[in-house]
Amino acid sequence: MNRLSRDRQQGFTMIEIMVVVVIVAILAAIAVPIYIDYVESARASEAKSVIGNIYNASKMYYQTYGQWPADVEELERSGQLRIDQSTKRQWIFAIQISDNSGTITATSTAEMDGGEGNVVQFDVETGQYSGYGTPESAQ
After folding, report:
1. What is the pLDDT of residue 7?
2. Running DSSP on this structure, what letter comes out for residue 91?
3. Helical ranges in 66-100 per DSSP H
4. How many domains does one find in the chain?
5. Is this prediction's pTM over 0.85?
6. Residue ranges of the chain with pLDDT lower than 50?
7. d(CA 123, CA 104)
8. Closest listed residue to residue 93, CA positions, set 114, 69, 113, 115
9. What pLDDT score does 57 carry?
10. Segments forming the whole domain that contains residue 19
11. CA triple 105-110-112, angle to 5 deg
12. CA–CA separation, 133 vs 122, rounded Å?
């Protein structure tokens, strides 16, 4: 009789295992969306950095030539800006600025790990980013 009670006490019951599985599932349900937002933010940080460089180069271009650049290539031709080829393979940049208002947009290509068609936008007037990798896109 003593041997039977000793055998019963070894290991975990099915209820205990199920409770652990439920706890792990709840933690995963909380952690995975936070992780995905973090990864998107990290991927978008390169675009945000280049957008900042484009905006500063556009202001220098305006001071030099008295007009806003029509596109990023114009900034590069004038020597105001240089974007690495690796960045150009992952993002397409567009400028639409006039009289301190407008936007600078980065759209991801198929080369980017996060997929094609993700858009990061900078509003010149407010100085705010929107779109992919921003807190508002996570909601």
Report:
1. 55
2. E
3. 72-77, 85-90
4. 1
5. no
6. 1
7. 7
8. 69
9. 95
10. 2-138
11. 70
12. 12
